[in-house]
Amino acid sequence: MKPGAARIRQALGVAALALGALALWSVLKPPAAAPAQPARPFTSSQQCAECHADVFAEWSNSWHALSWNDPEVRALSNDFANQDCIDCHAPRPVFETGIGNRVLPRNARRGEGVDCISCHMLPEGHISGGLMAGTRDTPGAACRPVAVRDIGSSVFCAACHDQHDTYKQWKATDYAAQGIGCIDCHMPPRKDGKPGRDHTMIGGHSIELVRTAVALRGVREGSRWIAEVENVGAGHHFPTEERSRAGDVFWRPLAQPGASAGASAGATPGAWRHAYRFRSPYRHEPLPDTLLPAHQTQRIPIEGEGSAGAIEVALFYSLKPYWADPEHPDPEREAQLVHRVELVP
């Protein structure tokens, strides 16, 4: 074979191998990644609903969402004439002021309360390059979320929830030592099987959660009863956070053993008699702080006419600090029943 013909055959062979390799690569190469959505500025939590409809719906039904418009907050803050309240009821992003630092108030979108942006937005130029903090990196999403561990920490919540020492209360508990934090109780995993945590963020407005926080029982000592309230489940004092919240122990002679609170079979129960209050007073009130720390028990002697016999004792919980008629409080109308026990000698 002539040298020129050999070189031609060699070149054709190399070309055939190259074409084969190219064909094989076209079959085996990984699929092209979906084009990333363009990054966009976020100026309202309403924008988050486009991609996070389920979580947005949970948040919309939360007290975080209502923190600015809640009528009780409006009344207690004198319609936010007490401007210190604005910081936590319409805060700028936590990441902007810094983890663990008190948040600052924002001037816009106050009606959105404690919203998605308050907790998730990262400051411009954040080292991660992301726009929002989350639990995983998703660079192709419009909000460019990046995994930021701090967003699930209890110190993150302290930016708002340590104004009345709730975070400090938690830090002193066995829960903190065991690594059980705020979100473990207040943002449990979602029950619908979907990833993430429940953004309704249950708290002091949930009587079901309050009932898991404390236990009520009675013990007999000689000829009198002692009511005991134990903080068995709250990761902080009971109650906590707002000075307007109170837990009240009442008692009365038992009209009919086995009857439910507020009703009896063949007998009318008497008026409730106040025995003890759990509450942190306002600064202007010359009252002691009687909040119940985690893991502790308050013993309350039951005294008065009829107290040595069969009685019922009840723990009520209220979001308001004062009774309509302080001389004759009506806990069944003005508060919520937490626990009730019948004590029979």
Q: Strand order, main sheet: write it out.
A: 6-5-8-9
Helix content: 25-40%
User: What general outline do the C-alpha atoms trace?
Assistant: elongated
Q: Main β-sheet, in a few words?
A: 4 strands, antiparallel
Provide structural commentary.
The chain is of the alpha+beta class. It has two domains: 45-186, no CATH class; 207-343, Immunoglobulin-like. The chain contains twelve helices and nine strands. A four-stranded antiparallel β-sheet has the order 6-5-8-9. The protein has a three-stranded antiparallel β-sheet with strand order 3-4-7. Strands 1-2 form a two-stranded parallel ribbon. Strand 3 (214-221) and strand 4 (224-231) form a beta hairpin. It is elongated, with a radius of gyration of 30 Å. The termini are far apart. The mean pLDDT is 88.
Structure summarized in a few sentences:
The protein has 345 residues and is of the alpha+beta class.
Key phrases:
345 residues; Immunoglobulin-like; three-stranded antiparallel sheet; 12 helices; 17% strand
